[in-house]
# Entry
Amino acid sequence: METHPMKNDEMNLIELFWKILLSWRQILCFGIIFALILSGIKYLSDNRKYREAKNVNLEKDIELSETEMQQINNVKILMARIDEYKNYLSSSPLMQMNLYEKPITELQYYVDSDYTFNFTEENKNDYSNDLITMYCNYIQSGELSSIVIEEGKLSVNQASLNELWSVTQSQNSILIRVTYPDEKKISSITKIIKKQLQKKETEFQEIGAHKLKLLMESQKVIVDNTLIDRKNQISGNIATFAAQLNNLKANMNEQQLAYLEEEQKSNANTADLQILKPGLNLKYVIMGAFLGIIILCIWIACKMMFASKLQNSEEIRTIYKARLFGEVYIPPKKRAFLSVIDDKLLSLKNRKKKYLTPKQQISVAAANIALSCKQQGIENIYMTGSEYENADTETLNILKQELSNQNVKVKDGESIYYNVESLKEGTEIGNLLFIEQKGQSIYEEIANELTLANEQNSNVLGFIVFV
# Structure
């Protein structure tokens, strides 16, 4: 007795790809749902922390005299001054440089004014000093520093950059000194300055005719004693204020110290509130959407791997080694939302196949059946299937009519495995044509039908699959 396998464990990766692609609605829904869930969980967590921090008791039950409060205010002023100095030393690019080997580039410009004085004629005011002042003001302006930061792609702000160059004036000459922590950047900074000064030379002709001449450009490494003294002075100020702060705290009582500590905690909590303030986090929205899509793709793959129902028509050949007369596409009775996308995807999937309408597919399948019957001398067939009672009635009627037109007599009925009358009629006729449906026909039931047909010595012509 011949037995039939129920399912092949191999997965068709191409079929899986198209299955996932055609499930774009579910992917979209899962992405949105998980994006909302993950971002919502993050929001609720941040909101809980925010409320906990906000509800910290900041009330001060300690009562202090006016003199004691003044001592506390003096401590706070000293602490603020120390923080300012420390922040400057740690954040200023100039203070971070090696002041004993400080690289600089000098640009020496000369403003050659066309102004002349004629004793015989009425003369205009000399505009040379105005030109020098205009150039110096421009070099020290925020306009030039903004251009240098943007074009030079520098990681400093305007305040820090203005510390890194200086400009001095002597009669009709201008000396520009440029330095930077990254020595390679100094060259690009000077190029930008020279380019911008050339533009300004044209603009400043309105003040008076002149020429801006670059007389000298030089690079050197110096010991900047002035800045060294300034840095030492700041460090000394920090040490002096720290000593004064310790002396003030030493003269404070326990209540003052407790008040000061509580106020410092209050300030820290206030700063944390700005960080913890809840809001929509785009990172968690994207992570949630990605997680939802991954989960759905895994779910689709697992459904295909462990599926109990027919996944595609080719499985009739590969699993059951039976003849497949054809597949017939059953259009959905109700078009789904944005079904035009499904149509495009299906046309892309079947781009290498010639398109046939459902009626043409039925005609081709009926012709194959009729030719097979003629070759075997068969006039009567019995049409059944594991899900025959749920098959599309209109399509079945068209198929029966096509077979009748080709002189094949057809009787049909429900599954021969579950319906006794169908089994009797099918066995009497002896020639069986199975109609199965993709996504509905169960592997085990198809195998049971084939096994039963073989046991009854019935002739299995083959299958037609509705997709």
Observations:
- The longest helix spans residues 24-54.
- The mean pLDDT is 83.
